[in-house]
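Table S2 (continued). Query chain:
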Amino acid sequence: MKRAAIFLFLVLLAVLSLGKGNLILYGWSDYIPEEVIENFSKEYDVRVTYDTYDSNETMFAKLKAGARGYDLAMPSADYTSIMIKENMLLKIDRSKIDNLINIDPDIIEQMYYDPNNEYSIPYMVGTTGIAVNTLYLQDYPKSWEIFQMPELRGKMTLLDDMREVFGAALKYLGYSVNTTDETQLKEAKNLILEWKKNIAKFDNELFAKGVISGEFWVVHGYGENIFYEATEEELENIDFFIPREGSTMWIDSFVILKGARNIDNAHLFINYILRPEVSAKISDYLLLPSPNVPARELMEEEPVYTAQEMENTELIKDLGRDLRLYNDLWNEIRFGL
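Corresponding output:
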């Protein structure tokens, strides 16, 4: 009897302690609505701290340099693959993520680097495209070819992202965004150098504000950033499209970092995010198609593009040692090295 009472006490203690404490997230800025985090905190009595980064490279470098204290990060597919290989992640207890069943199987199938979701759980899927301010430009090809138009010199920007820019050039040339063929990569490099003559700059941070204000007429970037920045009136003049040749695809996932102190709360948060009503709220906020199948029926906003429009996109993969081919050519493009 005494043993049973002790057991019941321990079970009660575990239930009462579930979710209490902290959770420290390291993710992209403006990527999770504050309301979602606040609601999770209230429901589970967890204090959430959200620290941000502006690129996968920044996130990875900081963690490799020894940054500690983070529980969850949100890398894209290629960096998730790298972090698995570098032994930077903890295995996920899938028995605690019962809402994983809501994720589109087609997206799971794309996750070649973690086919059984042992280390990563998809958060959001999307692509990269081109935005045009139609107040200043009305006649243009819905193609990467737009960056070859000398009459637009100084009025365009490309992302300051090696794989995204190479991906654009390679798609235009009819190659895979993950090619390791040196001849194809050099051809892409020469094309990017032609584009470079026409752009104002490579830019990750201000492209959305720039195209909305008219400082730039054409920008390479993420539609969700632009639609987040613009008013409804301003959006009437913004045409965002996925070029006809196709584009890159990205999958951002939650991963639990080695050294995490709040592992139970990390699992709670991931499972909470995968609730259909929560996932729908996030997609409405980001104006992105939801990877969560039942959430698609609950969305109230029209996404910037649909899952069907992403059919001609290709996932950026971790290329291992072959990434040096890209790095060397990118340094030539950016810095003339």
